[in-house]
Design a protein that fits this description.
flat, Rossmann fold, three-stranded antiparallel β-sheet, 3 domains, alpha+beta, 395 residues, Helicase, Ruva Protein, domain 3, six-stranded antiparallel β-sheet
Length: 395
């Protein structure tokens, strides 16, 4: 008798899916081995058990094992998957099932939606996913005042820190009125571009330079007795800074990455980048719902835009000679209508309709192609010789 090594046995199992004792529906203790990484077709008479084997046994067991591999927290949202009536199945990976059905071609249908994998993924992302800022990569979380306070109470005792309200972040201006308003409200100190200043003697800031301004709400030392004062200071900072509070650990090295930490009671970037989210739900990740669809393509993945190479003809031609192809290809009446507007536009922007397109300034080409944001004066004579005047936007 030839002995089979453990490695050979493992390789054999990895190369095939072994089903033993399948008894789902019409199956009667079916045993079979299915080669992996191959196209396998089940054929037979109606009612012979093809679907029972493929969908209700192999796929069902693959899905069940995948769900069981997830954490207990994730499994509670996916529900219980029953084990099919089979002795055992070896060599099985997580499975995907696409039912045979007649469907219309729909640009919103993908493999993920047809197989319903997308439903599970949306649920998974919404329940256990952690959003991150696309600019700085920091996690985007919302925290209550009590949660922020509990986090700070875990600091080692005697840790010194300042509670700051970041009221200005990377904005240009002198902020004279802001300094006066803060001083009138009873605040005495602020951090301006990393420097501690007295609001009674505010600095003169350069108007065209971006600045960071944080109001010093309180200076504290971590201790169990200071919870009440800490909570009050956090509430004040969050109200003043619109839901943000920064903790400055004064004993840490200036400029180090862990010197400051910003908390937010909203789903927003702690570094105040323009990223704001509502409460995350499964529909947030649905490209078929307005809550999650891309505003540019409405969830289709494609968008229509003008191809200038098709709109424009020979750039050596002028507008009057027909460089705008659609206006000349659809009859003279269409060009006659736009010619009246173009004559008015040419006077306002000081260019000639007889000049070659390639010689026109960029701003003129942009106005002709994409319209302008002001009214043009149009003058023309009708067939009775009377002059007609009106103003119109050029779109």
């Amino acid at each position: 008798m030839k002995a089979v090594s453990t490695q050979e046995s493992v390789r054999k199992h990895q190369a095939q899916i072994s089903v033993q004792g399948a008894r789902v529906h019409n199956l009667k203790n079916v045993d079979l081995a299915i080669p992996r990484d191959s196209m396998v077709v089940f054929t037979g008479l109606s009612g012979s058990g093809k679907s029972s084997l493929a969908f209700d046994t192999i796929f069902a067991e693959g899905q069940r094992r995948y769900v069981e591999s997830l954490s207990a927290y994730a499994r509670q949202f996916l529900g219980q998957v029953d084990r099919p009536d089979v002795d055992f199945i070896e060599g099985l990976s997580p499975a995907v099932s696409i039912d045979q059905k007649s469907t219309n071609r729909n640009p919103r249908s993908t493999v993920g939606t047809i197989t319903e994998i997308y439903d599970y993924m949306r649920l998974l992302w919404a329940r256990v996913g952690i959003p991150h800022c696309a600019v700085c990569g920091e996690p985007i979380r919302s925290q209550t005042v009590q949660q922020i306070a509990d986090t700070l109470m875990e600091l080692p005792e005697r840790t010194r820190f300042q509670v700051l309200a970041p009221v200005v972040s990377q904005k240009k201006g002198e902020f004279v009125d802001l300094f006066a308003e803060l001083a009138a409200s009873g605040y005495s100190r602020a951090m301006v571009d990393g420097e501690l200043i007295q609001l009674s003697e505010p600095p003169t800031l350069k108007k065209q330079v971006k600045h960071d301004i944080s109001v010093v709400i309180d200076r504290l030392v971590a201790s169990p007795e200071g919870l009440g004062r800490l909570t009050d200071s956090l509430e004040t900072a969050l109200e003043l800074a619109g839901g943000l509070v920064t903790i400055d650990f004064v004993d840490r090295e200036e400029g180090s990455a862990d010197r400051t930490h910003t908390f937010s009671e909203h789903l927003s970037c702690p570094n105040r980048h323009p990223v704001s989210l509502t409460e995350i739900e499964p529909r947030t990740f649905s490209f078929n719902a307005p809550f999650g669809a891309c505003p540019a393509c409405t969830g289709l993945g494609t968008s229509m835009s003008v191809d200038e190479d098709l709109v424009l003809g020979d750039p050596e031609l002028s507008i009057a000679e027909g460089v705008i192809v659609p206006w000349t290809s659809q009859g003279k009446s269409l060009y006659n209508y736009y010619e009246k507007l173009l004559r008015g536009l040419s006077k306002d922007l000081d260019f000639s309709l007889e000049s070659p397109w390639q010689d026109l300034p960029d701003e003129v080409q942009a106005a002709v192609m994409y319209g302008n944001d002001f009214k043009v004066n149009v003058r023309w004579k009708n067939r009775f010789g009377r002059e007609v005047k009106y103003t119109s936007g050029f779109e």
